[in-house]
Design a protein that fits this description.
elongated; 1 helix; mainly alpha
Length: 93
């Protein structure tokens, strides 16, 4: 099922790419299509990748940086609670 979804997405990407390229070639020519590809590479790929990378770095460094995590005593509990007897297994008769 996952492979079928991959194939559908690949087919959709190829179809959209072909439609975009053929319409730009007919309307703007080769140089117009080249400028369109460069614009796509700059705006959609470069800027979006930088924004996602910076946001991911900021979030992970905020929540994983030991200096920013408040100190808590994880072992602050009642000692008598840990001294409860273990459950006895049923005896074999």
């Amino acid at each position: 099922m996952i492979y079928a979804a991959y194939l559908v997405l690949i087919l959709r990407g190829v179809t959209k790419s072909y439609a975009w390229t053929s319409s730009n070639l007919n309307a703007l020519g080769f140089l117009g299509t080249l400028w369109g590809l460069l614009d796509y590479a700059y705006v959609d790929l470069f800027i979006n990748i930088i924004i996602v990378a910076l946001a991911t770095w900021a979030i992970t460094s905020r929540y994983t940086n030991p200096r920013l995590i408040p100190k808590t005593d994880a072992y602050d509990h009642d000692e008598s609670a840990s001294e409860q007897p273990a459950l006895a297994s049923p005896s074999n008769r």
